[in-house]
Amino acid sequence: MAKIEALMSWKDIPLGCYVLEAGSTMDYKTGDWRSQRPILDREKCTYCGLCYIYCPDGAYKDMGSEEKYYLVDLDYCKGCGICAYECPADAIEMLEEEV
Amino acid sequence: MAKRVGIEVSLALSEAVKMANADIVAAYPITPQTHIVEHLAELVAEGELDAEFIPVESEHSAMSTCIGSSASGARTFTATSAQGLALMHELLYMPPALRLPIVLAVANRAMSPPISIWNDHSDIMAERDTGWIQLFAENGQEVFDLTLQSFRIAEDPEVMLPVAVNLDGFTLSHVVESVIFPESDEVSKYLPPYKPAIRLDPENPVSMGIFGIPEIYTETKKATDVALLESKKTILKAWDEFGDIFGREYAPIETYETEGVDTILVTMGSISETAMTAVDEMRAKGKKVGLIKIRLWRPFPDEEFKAAVAGVKKIGVIDRCMTLGSHGGPVLMEIRSLLYAVADRPQVFGFMLGLGGRDATRDNFKYIYEQCQVLSEKGQDRHEMVGVME
Ligand code: SF4
Ligand code: SF4
User: Fold this and answer.
1) Which among A70, A75, A78, A93 is the best mutation to test ligand 1's pocket, defined by most ligand atoms within 8 Å of the CB?
2) Are residues B271 and B221 located together in one domain of the fold?
């Protein structure tokens, strides 16, 4: 096992270990946990928004009423497959990531 | 003028919460804590206490609610006993780590099974290491005073830690005692409104309860431990100031007739009153015995305790909690390990007494004193359950 070094001195831990800056989870890219990725078939997509609502990581971005689809941000998508499971139009397929 | 009232100790505790002007009380009733929260519900319903009383569906929810409430900056109180405290267990680690100054009253009760509603300390001892400041009251006045002091101690910017006030179930919670109530202007002088530096606020978002990777977890534990150990300074200050304003003195440990003695008994909570009477009777017969009562259990007052037992030959530690499969109760182990590195350390013997509501009598304390002499002579250091029928 790799040796684990401390990130900072205990003296520098903020009170209660609070994070005082909003939105800092953006710095934590969870996409590399993924073993499969969602692939969207835009032909089938009805732009209902369920994938966007159900995604536990908020990884989908609304592309607007012109484009009419939701784009996944692979920096954050963990590959859980919930969007594919919930999509009523069967428009999302989960594809194994190549190792 | 402060006034003296004859009142059930549970109700006196609730009145202290009222005088502290708590904002949120979230609680679930359980014997023998029930009268505390019933009376608080009454005080809120009758408009005597301007607080939100949240009648939750379990103790787990009670502590969860308190965590949210305290994080949002509200002065927060709850109370429980035994299995109720155990149901809070996983939540109890959060207020110390998140530095939330919740005040919790524990009407101490034995852990079931067999089902027991009666008093011992097994409930709080199971939560010993969660990081709460833990105080033990000896009588009704102490229950009132410690409750008031707890808000002050917990919310001090130098502390920001939760406090558990322990009062023995029934033997304290359900007896009527004479309690001195202070004037509200004295209380406001002692206990200013709670103004947290950081709280949950949509205008200034912060994250509380984040995850800690192995590279940081150890350091966070150290930070909380140091905060708990250092809190003793503020506790002493809060007690000094309490003495100045209200005229009653408090200390982490209290000694009774320990000058020049050979043997010291150690107690916590209401049995200390019986132990003092037993000490008086033994001293009248020429026995060189005194008593130490521990009021501050966490952070443990190492220096004060060591100083108080300097020169003593034998210590009889009384535990009101059964530690199964080990070599003695939690207070015994605490004191043995504390004194291990002391040169010329005294012999320390352990006694389990008053489990599950069994009376702790003057004769028990006299027996314990005699056993200290016998065991010392034999050079044995075992612990024993006093009065167990063979
Ligand atoms: S696979 Fe999971 S994480 Fe990725 S976009 Fe779909 S719902 Fe979100
Ligand atoms: S759930 Fe399916 S159909 Fe609805 S927007 Fe997402 S991909 Fe399109």
Assistant:
1) A78
2) no
